[in-house]
Amino acid sequence: MFVSERLDEIIYLINQEGKVEVNKLSKKFNVSKDLIRKDLSKLEENGILERTYGGAVKKRKLAETVTITSRISKNLDTKQKIAQKALKLLKPKESIFLDISSINYILAHELIKNNWEITVITNMIDIMHLISLNPDSKVKLIGIGGTCNNIIDGFVGISSINQINNFNVDRCFIGTIGINTYNGNVSTYEQDDGLTKVAIMNTSKNKYLITEISKIDQDGKYNFSNLKMFDCLITDNNISDLITKELKKYKIKIV
Q1: Residue 105: which H helix or E strand, with range?
Q2: Whole-angstrom Cα distance, residue 118 to residue 89?
Q3: pLDDT greater than 90 at residue 167
C-alpha cells in the first residue's frame, strides 16, 4: 500500500469513528507504530486531526458567534422536531427555565400554540417578547434581567445570576453550541453566558441539554458543564450508533 493510500484510509476511519489508535492502525496496515505516528503527525499538520496519547481524534471546529435571528431560521425543521420531543416531557402547572437557545424559542412557541398552563422563566429576550405578545395564553412569564448581550439575545452575568438563584424550578432546558463526547465538555460562546447557564442548572430538579447533534463536531470558547451533569439529552434523530455508544459512558438519557 502506498503512503497516500494509507493516509486516505486513516482519514476515512477518523471521519467514520471520530478517533483512531496507533496500536490498531499498526496491526491493520502491518507497519511499525513509529510509521503510524509519523502519518498522524502529517495529518495533524494538515489540520485533519489532533494527536492524543496513543492515537488521534477528529479535528474539532471552534463555533462562530452568530445572532439569534440567524440561528432560529437555520435547520428549522430539525429544531421543531426537537422542541416537540421536549414538549412531551412536560407536565401542566410546572415551572420551567428556558435559557438562551434557538430551540427553546421554538419550544416557547409550541407552549403558546398548545395553550399550556405552565410557568416559563427565561433570560432570552425573544422568548419574553413572544410570550408577552400572547396575553390570552395560559403561559405565565417570569423574565430575568441584568446585563443585556445583544449578540446572543439575552441577559447574562452576575446580576442575572443573583436573580436566578432565588428560584426553584421543575425543569431547565439548556442550549449549547459545542459538545465533546470524548471528555464530556459542554460549551458556549463566552464565560458570562456559561456561568449563567450553571446558575440555571443549580436551580432545577431536572436538567435537560437541548441541541442538534451536529454540535458534537465543534467547541465554544467556554466549557460550562459536562454531559454527566445532565439528566437527558434532547436531540434530533440523526444520532449515529457510534455517538450513542460514546454517550453511554456519561449515563445520560437520550431522547
Answers
A1: helix 102-113
A2: 13
A3: yes
Q: Is the pLDDT of residue 18 over 80?
A: no
- Give the chain's length: 255
CATH number for domain 3-59, candidates 1.10.10.10, 3.40.50.410, 2.170.150.20, 3.40.50.300:
1.10.10.10
pLDDT digits (tens, 9 = 90+) for 76-99: 889 999 999 999 999 999 999 999
Cα(first)–Cα(last) distance of the chain, in Å? 43
pLDDT attached to residue 14: 82
Domain boundaries, the chain: 3-59, 68-254
Residues paired with 61 in a beta bridge:
218
CATH class of 68-254: alpha beta
Query: Which residues are within 8 A (CB) of 34 and not within 5 positions of it... i.e. 6 or more apart?
Result: none
